[in-house]
Amino acid sequence: MSYRKIPPTPKRGMRALAIIVTIGLVTAGLVVFALPAFLASLVGLLPTMATLVADRTPGYRASRCVGVTNIAGVLPIVAMSFNGDTSMDAAITLLVDPTNWLVMYVGAGMGWVLLWIGPVIAEVFVTQKAASEARGLRENQRKLIAEWGRKVLDA
Amino acid sequence: MARASGTTPADGICGGRYAVLGDQPLANLDMPSAQAFAVHDLEGAEPDLMALLCDPWVPVRLDMVPQLLSQAIPNVVNLLFAGRVHVAGRGGWAMAFIYRRPLGPRLAPPTFRKSDGRSDATRAPMDEAEAIEKVLVPIAQALDDLHGLGITHGAVRPDNIFYANPECTKVVLGDCLTAPQGHYQPLSVETIERGLADPAGRGPASEGDDFYALGVTLAALIMGQDPGAQFDRAALLEARIISGSHRALLGKANLSMGVSPVLQSLLSDDVESRWNGRAVISWSKGTTQRPARAKGPRSDRPPFEFMGTAYRELRALAVALSATPAHAAEQIRRRRLGDWLRKKIIDPNRAEAIEALSSSGEEALNDEELVAQTVMVLDPAGPIRYRSLALMPDGLGPALADAMAAEDSDRVNDIADLIRLKLPLVYMELGAWRDVDHYQDRIEFDAVHANLTKDGLGFGVERALYDLNPLLPCRSATIGGAYAFDLREVLGALDGLAERGELNDDSIDKHIAAFIANRLKLKSSDELSELSDASMPPERRRYAFLRFIGEVHQRCNRPPMPNLAKWLGSRLELVIEDFNYRPLRHDLTGRLKRLAASGDLSRMATLLSNPTLRQRDEAGFKVAVKQYAANARRIEALSSHGAVHDTRIAGLGYSIASFGAYAILAATAFAVTVMFGA
Fold first, then answer.
1. Whole-Å CA distances, A12 to A17, B394, B562
2. pLDDT digits (tens, 9 = 90+) for A82-97
3. Alpha-carbon distance B380 to B372, whole Å?
4. Partners of residue B19 on adjacent β-strands
5. Between B631, B645, B656, which is nearest A121 by CB?
6. A87 exposed, middle or buried (CB, 10 Å; 0-12, 13-18, 19+)?
7. With contact defined as beta carbons under 8 Å apart, do B359 and B168 qualify?
């Protein structure tokens, strides 16, 4: 009999520290090289962050849904910010335009709309499917009674 | 058996050749249990024939038929055919024996009408020389020939010998098949042992018994009357036991010295010294034969006092003891009898045997058993005597048949008790049979005993009747007129009942069940238990009826029984409803109807009791029940809108939302790429 050597589990503190350091380095990189895009993303994704904080769904499914549509809203603004000017002025110009805010927050809103409309569609679908299945089962029961008699009910 | 060819549908025709003329009785040729009728030979070869149509309740000797048909024996009525015949006006079928008709009268008027076994019938005394020449010699020769074929006659008596021709120059011995041997014999023509037995329970005669009867017949013809006519039954037996048959019957007869040796030798009570046919013929030719010694009374013996009478003969004492079992048992238990045998008769073996019977410890015999067994020790060659019965062990069957025909329930119960107590087996140990190997008899009796002691339809005393009389027709009142000898004929009779609308759920009565159980050699009542269970619904009993009859039908090579099949087929809906699968029921109904139309009872039974079909139906039903219940649970779950339902909707809702979100993201990404990538 052989024994596999179990690799040592990294300490949770070290792992969190590594994540924080990575995020810090990426953030620093973005601030230096793409400040308008960074700021647009920061403020544009605030609804997602707010949702993430309040989300109680399993696997943060609501946050993911809102996050994805929110990113879809932020994506055009970020794309526009890549015009070669990475100054603070360019960033402020981008953020003072209410259309940009609208675009970004409508994106997040669409996520909420989808979260509301998805279960409605699902309920209609599931109910129809269950009704259809029940009809099939009842038909099968009628056939059983026809073939075996009402004794199948009493047995 | 020859009779197998005799079942013919035409009225009065048997064997396809002999027409029994039911309107032409021949009363002068009647036998005690058979009526004689004229017969017309359809082939015209035999002008003078007679048919003896038997009483259906009396067992006939069918087992002797093949030998008698195989060759014509001189001086014996020639049997030409034996079989069932339906004669109009006689209430159904009857057993018919077709004989060449004796053309002269009987030698003596019938004696058999007297119930006490005596005859007061007289005839003109026959000349001694004529009696010897015309009767003794030819009949002795005939008996010798019969014995050579393994047949004993058992009905040699003056009124059963006929003149064969109108000139009365030649005689023939009459029928011996229409009744059990000895049943209708006057007491005087039976040996003492057989005379002690009840007429119906005398059992098969021996060769010596036939010659004894011939001797008495000769004496009767010479004397012109039954030599025992002046005695009543008990007195005749007592006189014969004490003085010997020859002295008792012929002691006062005026017979010449010429005939004396043959009568003395034929009437000898010692079977070893009794003359046989060869000796008689030899004597008739003038050869000197040493006559048998006549036995005298035992006046020298110290007597045994019983009920105020002194007995010197063990056999006479046995008769007295069996007549009063309570007093007899007291004498036996007080060892008076044993002491007498040991000290006075000097017969320690008998004394020991009787004392052993009376000191059986915990398994003490009751008075009647004790006396019955004691009597076997005292008179081993005599019949089994129990209560009012006196039966030879091999006469049990005819005796039971006789008692049942007479509806004498006391006698039937006594015979049943005698079998239950296994007295015939005791007889094999203590009686005259003790020196012979009776292995086969024991096995057969054990089977009879086992079947008698079982309860239920197909067993009991009716079963004993058919076990003890294997050639007896079925005596069911339901098919009374059918005279059914075998299973096929019973089925045919039931089919006839169905055709006439007389069949009902109780038609398989005790006799039919016992008859069939005997022929099928059934050892257990399981197959018949539902038939006799009155608490069962009628359809269940009919199904049991079908299974039982189906087995019988199979055994008879499946002759078509359309009426019986139709009757059963139309009354088995409930049995078909036992099957759960309705398409199968529909299919079975159709198949049952087709089989019923073809009269195939065995296949009907097989169809409905097919175990594979039933197992598959049961298994299918179980699956259907499970499936129905599972469907019901699933429908309940689907319609309940419980937590699972909500979770499912939530999960699917998130999936739809996520799909929509990713679709929007993909579309935006595409648009951005197109717009800003250019």
1. 9, 109, 94
2. 877 778 888 888 889 9
3. 11
4. B13, B40
5. B656
6. exposed
7. no
Position B456 scores a pLDDT of: 87
Task: Answer whether 0.80 is exceeded by the pTM.
Answer: no
Nearest CA in chain B to A139: B631
Number of C-alpha atoms within 13 angstroms, CB side, residue B566?
Answer: 13
Which among B289, B62, B273, B277 is positioned nearest to B148, based on CA atoms? B277
Structure tokens at B251: 């002691």
Does the CB of B652 have a partner CB in chain A at under 8 Å? yes
C-alpha span between B659 and B646 (Å, rounded): 20
Taking the CA of residue A74 and the nearest CA in chain B, the distance in Å comes to 10
| pLDDT for B300 beyond 80 | no
Q: Do residues B241 and B315 make contact, with C-beta atoms less than 8 angstroms apart? A: yes
Q: Which residue of B has its CA nearest to A155?
A: B625
Residues from chain B contacting residue A65 (CB–CB below 8 Å): 654, 657-658, 661
- Cα–Cα–Cα angle for B642, B643, B646, nearest 5°? 95
* Chain B touched by A76 (CB under 8 Å): yes
B177's tokens = 């098949």
Tell me the C-alpha distance between B357 and B354, whole Å. Answer: 5
ipTM field: 0.83
Is the Cα dihedral B40, B45, B46, B51 positive or negative? Answer: negative
Interface test with A, best of B646, B652, B655, B662 (most A CBs within 10 A): B652
> Is B346:B323 a contact under the CB 8 Å cutoff?
no
- CA–CA distance, A98 with A101 (Å, rounded to integer): 5
Q: Are B655 and A118 in contact (CB under 8 A)?
A: yes
Contact B649 A122 (CB under 8 A): yes
Length of chain B: 678
Q: Given this model, what pLDDT does residue B347 score?
A: 84
Q: Identify from A113, A114, A129 which residue to disrupt to test chain B contact, counting B C-beta atoms within 10 A and taking the largest count.
A: A114
* A150 contacts A144 by C-beta, under 8 angstroms: no
Residue B245 structure tokens: 């048959």
Which one has a higher pLDDT value, B124 or B42? B42
Rama region for B594: left / alpha / beta (φ>0; ψ in -120 to 50; rest): alpha
Dump the DSSP string for B437-470. Answer: --HHHHHHHHHHHHHHHS-STT-SHHHHHHHH-T
Q: Is A133 on the interface with B (CB under 8 A)?
A: yes
- Would the CB atoms of A151 and B580 count as touching at under 8 Å? yes
pLDDT over 60 (residue B4)? no
What's the CA dihedral at B541, B544, B545, B551 to 10 degrees? 180
Q: How many CB pairs under 8 A join A and B?
A: 142
Alpha-carbon span A109 to B363, nearest angstrom: 109
Taking the C-alpha atoms of residue B472 and residue A70, their distance in angstroms, rounded to an integer, is 108
Give A 24-63 residues with CB within 8 A of chain B.
57, 61-62
